[in-house]
Design goal:
By secondary structure, the protein is mainly alpha-helical. Among the domains are: 63 residues; 165 residues, no CATH class. 80% of the residues lie in helices and 0% in strands. It has 18 helices and no strands. It is flat, with a radius of gyration of 32 Å.
Length: 369
Amino acid sequence: MRRVMLGSLLVCLVAFALFVLYSPSEQDPSAETPSDEVVAERIREELREVATPDYVQAQIARTLDEDRPEEAEGYIALAAELGQAVPAGLLARYEEATSTTAAVWRTTTRGAWGFLTGEAEDGASLAGSAISDLTLYGDARDVTFQTRNYLTGAEVDEFVLGLSVVGLGMSAATVATAGTAAPAKVGLSMVKAAKRAGRLTAGLETALRRTVAETVDMPALRRQLGALDWRSPGKSIEGVKSYAAGLDTARLRGMFGQLGSVVDKTSAGGAMRILRHVDSADDLVKAERVAARFGKASPAVFETLGKRVFKAFAKVAKMAIEALWALITAILSALSFVISTLWTVVKLLRRLFARLRAGRRPVAQSAGT
């Protein structure tokens, strides 16, 4: 019985140790991966406290006043997510802003600017930047520009250079896989555009720089660039593509693919706005899950809640662990009660048997005389 008691005590101690060591907290939001729907409900609870009908309608009006109908669309989608009605006047303004003539002019001019310069201020210019990279033009343009800086002794942005070289290799992979690698290529283009626009957070840029540095041997790349004859840019770019084809870009493809998925679920401009809140690779994973659940409303969700979106994951995980611990505690309490009861019964039985044995001894002695 002592062994049983000691075993129960050991189980309690082990359970407590596991709870203390592995329970998630605000400092370790990635300790658990709760289901998307549970997290989505938690995010909706947070939104209901802040995104009142007045707030949402004010954001729709503001974005339309600033000629940003794509952002207005996100807040309209957020209103639908929260079951809020949008006034007919605002919807009419949105329809007018996205009419064929207005949309074509906006997309054409801003898309052309993004294609030529690689800079992105909105969805259309970002789409143009992404197309330029998908057609090799963007990556070749950036490699050529950075190489010129290297050969003339000017400052070289090794991050942009590394991304562009990786992009040339991904472009070949996109063609070879009939487009299945395109989401990663779109994500890479977004990172470059965000870097140029100053919208890439320091945390995410640090994580990406580290991964690019691990992927691209920069001293070897510099030697390769210096050995090429840049009087024939076309042949030189082919040489860079050959170098890029030998790189192991699996980790970067994974991160860029997640960002490409965010673009697919929202929009190019929407993904750019979400990127402002992404500080790490772990945040990017969560952002992809939020985009998959909230779709077009996702940028508005992030702009409304900020980092509280990511904290929702930690809170849900913590609640799940606390519920599990409560269950373990209840089971251990029940087990302790059962063991205590059995121990009491055993002690009573021992006393009873002892008395019975004590009562039989005189009788046995009398019979012997």
